[in-house]
Amino acid sequence: MYRVGKEEIEAFARAIMSRDFFKINGSGQEVLHFDDEWRQTVGARYSLTMTSGFAALTSALIGMGVGPGDEVIVPAYTYIASALAVTATGAIPVIAEVDETLTLDPKDVEKKLSPYTKVVMPVHIQGFPSDLDALKKLSAKHGFRILEDACQADGGSYHGKYLGTVGDAGAYSFNYFKIITSGEGGALVTDDRQIYERALIYHDAAAVAFFGNQLDGITEPLFGGSEFRVSDLTGAMLREQLKRLPALTSDLRKNRDALAELVCGRGKAVQAPSHDIKGDCGTTLSLRFETAKECRGYQKKCADGGVGSTVPIDTGKHIYTNWTQIMEKRGAMHPAMDPFKMEANKGLNMDYSPDMCPTTLDLLSRTLYIAVNPDWTQNDLLQIASVMNG
User: Fold this and answer.
1) Which residues of 145-167 are buried (b: 16+ CB within 10 A; e: fewer)?
2) Pairing state between β 145-149 and 367-371
3) Contact 48, 196 (CB under 8 A)
4) How many angstroms separate the most distant Cα atoms in the chain?
5) What does the alpha-carbon distance between residue 246 and residue 342 come to, in Å, rounded to a whole number?
6) Alpha-carbon distances, residue 94 vs 175, 316, 321, 348 (angstroms)
7) By the 8 A CB rule, do 117 and 144 touch?
8) 3: Cβ contacts below 8 Å, ≥ 6 apart
């Protein structure tokens, strides 16, 4: 969490004191207002607030008609939730390399396309924009849908367009560790009416037909789904957090750029490339080294000087080799519900091995992250840079 204060407390109290904070209500309608405000902010036709980024990814995949017999390409470097959203639909995640920016490599995507590829899921990890132009060209050529996992990229952009709105649908996360937060939460956005209608039904199948007029104008038939609905307590906090987003992204980018100016090109620290550095969220200064040994040496120097840093190869469930449920092919508790055991998925690309994405593992071992604080002062920046340049 970057910034929170009395505004969020007052919004939360407002929702509680209404004594009417179920999502569909006659009082504050905080969730419905946030849906509209988020939609307008990012420039999408439809928005649905949910319990998590995973919920949004899963609902979007369902909205795209993904299920048994389908493959969804995901990057080898992303949180495991990206891959688990695929197995939640009964489909098979196909794991592809990342490029120098640590986002999905379109060249490897093209190699791994098959007649069963229904969706490609670029992940804007750490707020780094993926190569969406290249992926859209592949989509036009091969006919797959693009689902942007923007769960670490609230407020990021790609060539002037908000991340999450360039593909067919986008998913965001608002959990505690994200740019704006409600503790837990997420959202799906899309311009596609069919994806929206199916996601609406799926994300709240137990209540959407029974509260309010949520099905007015909906033509998709009702079907069994899940329950990812949030209350107005979540909506109220998100509405206040959204007001903070422009200043947050501005300050993060400003401090990222200032630190990069002070340290990059001095010694062995080189800033990693970006597909759109201006649209990058600015949460992270990403440094690239020639060898893993150099990277570890620089990390130790930072640690000795009190500057926190992370080598992304160490980030556990963000690395495909640590996706236990995927690598060991246990996609569900009951065998009949496990996509890895479904007859419809026989012959699909699930030939996983720890060394299947060597480029990704190499890049992750030679990269160092410095987490950026939007509230750093000039003195803070100078002090951090003196350690890094020492």
Assistant:
1) bbbbbbbbbbbbbbeeebbbbbb
2) unpaired
3) yes
4) 64
5) 46
6) 26, 19, 13, 9
7) yes
8) 244, 248, 374, 375
Write the DSSP string, 230-290: --HHHHHHHHHHHHHHHHHHHHHHHHHHHHHHHHTTSTT-EEPP-S-TTTS--SEEEEE-S
- Whether the CB-CB separation of 164 and 170 falls below 8 Å is answered with yes
Residue-by-residue pLDDT tens, the chain, 390 positions: 999 999 999 999 999 999 999 999 999 999 999 999 999 999 999 999 999 999 999 999 999 999 999 999 999 999 999 999 999 999 999 999 999 999 999 999 999 999 999 999 999 999 999 999 999 999 999 999 999 999 999 999 999 999 999 999 999 999 999 999 999 999 999 999 999 999 999 999 999 999 999 999 999 999 999 999 999 999 999 999 999 999 999 999 999 999 999 999 877 889 999 999 999 999 999 999 999 999 999 999 999 999 999 999 999 999 999 999 999 999 999 999 999 999 999 999 999 999 999 999 999 999 999 999 999 999 999 999 999 998
Element containing residue 93 per DSSP (H, E): strand 92-96
CATH class of 6-241: alpha beta
Structure tokens at 361: 């593992």
| All structural domains of the chain with their residue ranges | 6-241
Query: Phi/psi of residue 293, each to 5°?
Result: -65, -45
Quote the pTM value: 0.97
User: How far is CA 27 from each of CA 31, 105, 207, 325, rounded to the nearest angstrom?
Assistant: 11, 47, 19, 43
Tokens of 322: 């640590």
